[in-house]
Write a structure and sequence with these properties.
It contains 8 helices and 11 strands. By secondary structure, the protein is an alpha/beta fold.
Length: 220
């Protein structure tokens, strides 16, 4: 029997990813490590910027009614899911990148963006500088308490690690690393999980599809 694939991202993305895996005949462990919630924020005047940079659909999911005041700004998004969330909220998407935030920022700069506003989570990798004029926190991901019996399910599974914070958390939760595999969104996420794993795979691209495909390849 193939190994189960553990989906660790917060809801509602956890359910979406798990369903995609199960539709291909594989077992999943649905165990969100974090719970995402909105954060109060002050909406700036859009006239001070020429674009929005967004690296997660959570910015649109939790940004609230203030987002409407920024609708005149084109969005540069990491990942197709983020771009789709932008469009659902009425934004025009100027560009989508699937190779991380640094590559996206380079694309935006090459296209003429000079003063971007980054709508972000409380924990983030992008810092002010270059074309990123300001960063506003619009959501936060809080750790969920994981019972020992729930953590034990991860031993021997294939874990989808979609952030450095998730990598650090599984490094703390998993007891049997020598028989557990990781599929990580980036080298940084893999490094945060520490060593001792049976196998670590970092597929090209940052899309959920790339991670799922890599996990299913290991399970088959």
């Amino acid at each position: 029997m193939s190994r189960p694939i553990a989906v660790l991202r917060p809801e509602p993305g956890n359910r979406v990813t798990a369903i995609a895996i199960e539709a291909q005949g594989h077992r999943t462990i649905r165990l969100p490590l974090f719970e995402t919630r909105p954060v109060d924020w002050q909406v700036p005047e859009s006239s001070g910027y020429d674009a929005l940079v967004v690296t997660s659909a959570n910015a649109f999911r939790h940004g609230g009614p203030g987002l409407v005041r920024l609708l005149d700004l084109p969005v540069w998004a990491v990942g197709t899911a983020t771009a789709e969330a932008a469009r659902r909220n009425g934004f025009a998407v100027a560009g989508t990148g699937d190779a991380g935030s640094a590559r996206l920022l380079a694309m935006a700069e090459a296209a003429g963006v000079r003063r971007a506003l980054h709508l972000a989570g409380r924990e983030r990798t992008v810092e002010p500088g270059g074309i990123v004029a300001d960063i506003l926190t619009v959501y936060a991901s809080e750790p969920r308490e994981i019972a020992p019996e729930a953590a034990a399910q991860l031993d021997g599974a294939i874990l989808l690690v979609q952030s450095a914070r998730a990598g650090q958390r599984v490094g703390e939760l998993v007891a049997d690393k020598a028989h557990t595999m990781l599929v990580a969104v980036s080298d940084g996420a893999a490094e945060a999980a520490g060593g001792g794993w049976e196998q670590v795979v970092v597929p090209g691209g940052v899309t959920g599809t790339a991670l799922v495909d890599a996990a299913i390849a290991l399970a088959d």
